[in-house]
Amino acid sequence: MRLSKLALCLASxxxxxxxxxxxxxQSQLTTxxxxxxxxxxxxxxxxxxxxxxxxxxxxxxxxxxxxxxxxDSLISVPNVTATGGPRSGGQKFSVRGFNDxxxxxxxxxxxxxxxxxxxxxxxxxxxDLYRTISIKRGPSTVLHGGGAxxxxxxxxxxxxxxxLAPDQTYGAKVKLGHNSNNNEANGSVYTYARPIxxxxxxxxxxxxxxxxxxxxxxxxxxNSAIKAESLLIKGEYYINEDALIALSYTESExxxxxxxxxxxxxxxxxxxxxxxxxxxxxxxxLNPENxxxxxxxxxxxxxxSHVTESGGxxxxxxYIGLATNYEYNINTLDIMNxxxxxxxxxxxxVQYSDKERIGEKLGYPCTNLNRQTYECLExxxxxxxxxxxxxxxxxxxxxxxxxxxxxxxQALTITGGIRYEEYQSTPTSxxxxxxxxxxxxxxHSQVVPALTVNYQFTSEFAxxxxxxxxxxxxxxxxxxxxxxxxxxxxxxxxxNSRNSEMGISYQVSDVFSDIDSLTARAIYFNTQVDDEIQxxxxxxxxxMPAPRYSNRGENDRDGFELEVNYAHRAGYVNFSYxxxxxxxxxxxxxxxxxxxxxxxxxxxxxxxxxVRTGISIQNISARTVLAYDRAAQASxxxxxxxxxxxxxxxxxxxxxxxxxxxxxxxxFDEEYQVMAGTGGAIGxxxxxxxxxxxxxxxx
Length: 699
Known about the structure:
Number of strands: 40
Shape: globular
Helix content: under 10%
Number of helices: 6
Structural class: mainly beta
Largest sheet: 22 strands, antiparallel, barrel
Mean pLDDT: 89
Low-confidence stretches: 5-27
């Protein structure tokens, strides 16, 4: 284990000191670890009592920092960051160093949401749509399925109950804001109603428009402006006291000229890019009060991610053609039930998804190509629509069944589960036409177990340990890619992982007075990945026409995560620290892992909580990365300098209708560079000081 001296000091000093504190009656005050999650654990638990690395970001957390994207609200979650950026269209989730879209399972109200495209981010929705963002670090394959090697990010949309006051039947809320750095104007309108006692309705519209960002080095980030709109419509009907049916639709759009490469620094050229992501969900819940055998949830979802690029300039003119179209269309079905049988709580269900991927290019064929410059000198007269060879289309169907038993006896809880999942991947008929007589359908299946043991030594102190296996099936492009004339690889195998964790948790009320509360959690984890699917386009180490992708990789990473949260009637202090390191199959460091991070988030409340103020301090340590030196035409080790970012926030509830918010990012205009989205190298400079203001009115 490669724990730093700081991690060992924090774990050995802070937790024993807290264990000496005596407890009294449970205070009503709650800390960040007391937040309740359902989606990440599939049963209702607080983050602290889940005996897993679970965190919940609430709408209050999102609004406190006036977040534009969900990535803006991640700073207090250990080993969870955004890679890419700072353009909003270039960011991806990184959970314990897993930063590809296929390694972090993202869902909206239970519907799987994914998008993967070269040099582009994966999630584009507005942060103001969500009431909670639940993040499970580490594999959660038994309950959520393949593709969760790094973890799960499950977002829950807002509904009318988040706005309606007691006995209120209808209302509206309007928010108007401005961000100084990029001269962003933003506004949102929420209308909500409860026309009858059993029906809740919500409609929301959010719009943002800005100029380019000013970076922390004083330069302007060209083609980084925002022009986005989001829509949410949601209705919930309570059939009776035991049953609920809900329907929701959300859509986010962005259309403007931007850099083709939104994840890394460097001049690639610009395109006109239209982005649209939408989620439609229909759900049914049945939970009879006096029936311990039935707690049923049925969800049917459809997600669509569509990106169209046109007007390519420079080297992109031929690559883009008249227009290129990338799509992911995913249908999901999720049926789950929990039955309580004495000391056993059985959670079991079936999950199905059907993912269609489309990659097409419309352009004039090149009839005269300069082989030295790859510039097309002459074009044909008739435009042709072809599939994009670097992003082959097709469908991938997934079926999973699982069961989990949570056994509780006195202070001991043992949770064990197992999942079986199978995949069928099929290319498009146009692709298959090039392989006459060959069966191109590929099937994969996997069985994975999970086991967690939690022992509550006292009402304050608990220890837990877990073992979980994870996996992901090969992607369509990994199977059918023909990069540069290479062969496809129908023999690709499943990528596997094994994750072990051990941790301690602590919770106590009345620490220094009878109006405070403290919670803490420390976790050590080790994750091993076998049969890692890697890309190799080198003709030296992978001679033509061998497939680009193969199961050639392995890696081993471990880390430490500590969270200490204190809440008082007068304010709060949240502390988190994380570190991670690892090596690959050649005993070389995993350069793409995030740096050691220490965060302090504190706040004070005044005048019966009508005024709330806060400060956040995030220290990112220096790290060594592998970067490509264009002059030397070789990769070399370089230092990614550490930095400290300070943010401020304040909220004033002027009266029952009016409120004002202020948030300042990068208060001292610290010069720093973010982590890149490809290979984890050094990315663009981060955004400079940004003063964000907002005024809201509700009636």
